[in-house]
Amino acid sequence: MDSAGKIKKPYKKVYIEITNVCNKNCSFCVKTTRPPAFMTREQFERAAEAVRPYTDHVYFHLMGEPLLHPDLEQFLRICEEKKLQVNITTNGTLLESKAPILLSSPALRKISVSLHSFEDENKEEADYFKQCIAFAKAASAAGKIVELRLWNLDSQAEKENIFFLSMAGKAFDLALTPADLQASSQYGIKLADRIYLGTARRFVWPSLERQEVWDSLFCYGLRDQFGILADGRVVPCCLDHEGDVTLGNIFDLPLGDILNSPRARAIFDGFSNRKAVEELCKRCGYALKFNI
């Protein structure tokens, strides 16, 4: 049990990819060659029911833009019924149109907005930033947490980042400078009640084509998280964008059997000994952050 006397479930979070389709073509995204897919309501309900014994938090995230899904409102309602808290990662382009659904959902806990998606926009980024800030304020008033992300500190977006800082400073009555981006803590910069600016450098997505490998690694995959792709395949973490390390399919097998399969146990035990056993894991630049 946790400090509140509540039974603690095995995983901190489970990623559910409700769609792998996106409305943008961002340079920082590795993308996927899998066929376009949208989970049906029946499939999502089965996925939500399957993960309920294992976690209290689901993330609508892996590939794709979750706000594109036509059944988003129904999915949030299903999570409410199953007492699952929802966290969504979005590029932010649909926040204005989807705000009534998002802000009225008791299940929605947090929205993370990838502001760095503006790098490839041809329009004025001021309109985009304005929309994201307005949503953040409305979401905060509705009791939601908002993380505005700039995960591009080593890119060529310095001018755009400074421009956003200027807009955010005015919107939240803060004196923000470029130095704040580099000096922010792991929890980010607090802009207002329940509103944060998260900063990070770009990371290297795992790929079987990558030549550089790291055998000695630790990762939280299958330790505090795992993912479910839109077609039901279970993967160790949110970065397995192609399903290269497929452990099983929740539409074919019980989730418990999948998570306790020999392959899954080998991954978990390997990381317990600071060793990556899967070829994809050996080629994951993101995992390096846990091994400093």
Task: Explain what the structure shows.
The protein is α/β, with parallel strands linked by helices. The chain has 8 helices and 10 strands. It has a 10-stranded mixed β-sheet with strand order 6-7-5-4-3-2-1-8-9-10. Helix 3 links the parallel strand 3 (85-90) and strand 4 (108-114). Helix 3 (95-103) packs parallel to helix 4 (125-141) and helix 4 packs across helix 5. The model has no long low-confidence stretch (mean pLDDT 90).
How is this structure best summarized?
The chain is of the alpha/beta class. The protein contains 8 helices and 10 strands. The protein has a 10-stranded mixed beta sheet.
The radius of gyration computed from the alpha-carbon positions, rounded to a whole number of angstroms, is: 19 Å
Strand content: 15-25%
Poorly predicted parts: none
Give the proportion of residues in helices.
Answer: 25-40%
Please give the count of helices. Answer: 8
What is the rounded distance between the termini?
A: 31 Å
Helix and strand sequence: EHEHEHEHEHHEEEEEHH
Mean pLDDT: 90
Globular, elongated, flat, extended or rod-shaped: what is the shape? globular
* Overall number of strands: 10
Structural class: alpha/beta
Strand order of the largest sheet: 6-7-5-4-3-2-1-8-9-10
Major pleated sheet? 10 strands, mixed
